[in-house]
Amino acid sequence: MQVTNADRVVYPDDGITKGEVVAYYESVAHRMLPFVAGRALTVERFPKGTGAKGFMQKNAPDHFGEDLIDRHEVPKEGGGTTVYPVVNEQRAIAAFANLGVITFHAPPSTVVDEWHPDWVIWDLDPPSGEFELVRVAAALLREVLESFGISPVLMTSGSNGYHLRAQIVPNVEADTVARIARGTSALAVAAHQEELTLAFRKAERGSRVFVDWLRNAPYSTSVVPWSLRARPGAPVAVPISWDELDEVDPNGVSFADVTRRFDLDPWQKMVTHDFGAVATQVDEALDTAGIELEPFDRFRS
Fold first, then answer.
1. In the predicted structure, residue 284 carries a pLDDT above the cut 80
2. How far is the C-alpha of 133 from the C-alpha of 97, rounded, in Å?
3. How many CB atoms lie within 10 A of CB 283?
4. CATH, domain 112-290, list 3.40.50.2000, 3.40.50.1240, 3.90.920.10, 3.40.50.720
5. Among 123, 181, 182, 197, which Cα is nearest to 155's?
6. Average pLDDT for 123-148
7. Comparing C-alpha atoms, which of 107, 104, 133 is closest to residue 121?
8. Would you give the DSSP letter of residue 154?
9. pLDDT tier at 297 (50, 70, 90 boundaries)?
10. Which CATH class is domain 1-106?
11. CA dist 32 → 173, 212, 243, 247, 262 (Å)
12. Mean pLDDT score of the chain, rounded to an integer?
C-alpha cells in the first residue's frame, strides 16, 4: 500500500518511522486477524508520533471504504451512538497504521454475538517496573485457574504486566463470564493476600499486583496480540509460552527483535474451554471461602 509521510519518525527515541510501523503491521496482519476480525475495535492513534500526545478512537474513520471495514453502531448511555470499526481483512490493519494507529484494542466478543464472549482475559497490573512481582502473580493465578480446569495462555502486554487469556466456547452470557473472571481473581487474592489484590485504586495496592478482571464486558477491551505499544523501545504485546515466564519481561519483546518470534507458536496447543459448568464450580468455591462478590462500579471504586 502507499504510505503517507513514510519518513516521519514516530518513535523519536528509537528512530522508527511511520513507514516501518506500517510495514510491521503488514507483516503481522495474518497473525493479528484472528484476534480482531469481527470485533468492535478501539485504536490508539499518534498522528504526530509517540513523542506527542495521542488519543483513543472508537468511531470508524469516515473515509474508510466498506471493502476495508464494516461499521457497528452501539447506543451510548445518555444518548447518541458509537460507530465502531470492524475489520474485514488483513489489509485494513496496515491501513489503520497509515492513519497513525500504534495500538489495537479489541473486546472479548464479536459483534454478531456481543453478549457471548469467546475469550476471557485476566490483566495483571504490578507496581511500575516490578516484573518479578508480576511473574509470581502470573504463576499464582495460573494455579488457581487450573484448579477449575482452565488452562490459560500467556502474553506480554508490551507494558508493565502480563495477560492471561483463555479461549472459550461462546455459549455463556457475558455477565457470567465476567463473574467467573472476577470470582477466580477473588479466590486467587484470598489465597495470596500478600502478592495479589483486587483494589482498583493504585493507592490501595501497595506492593501487590492488581488482578484486573474488568476486561470481560462486551465493549471492554484489551490490547491485541502483536500490537505495538507507544512506549520508548517500541515494545510489542506478544504470545509467549509459560516456559518463558522467567525469561521474557512484560515489555521484553521490541520492534527491533520481534521478528525472532515469527517462527514460534506458543499457543499452538491452546484449549478452547466450555464454561457451562465452571460458573457453578466458582460460585461453590466462593461460598466455601466465605467470599461475597458485591456490586462493583469502577467509577465509584
1. yes
2. 33
3. 15
4. 3.90.920.10
5. 123
6. 97
7. 107
8. E
9. low
10. alpha beta
11. 25, 23, 23, 24, 12
12. 95
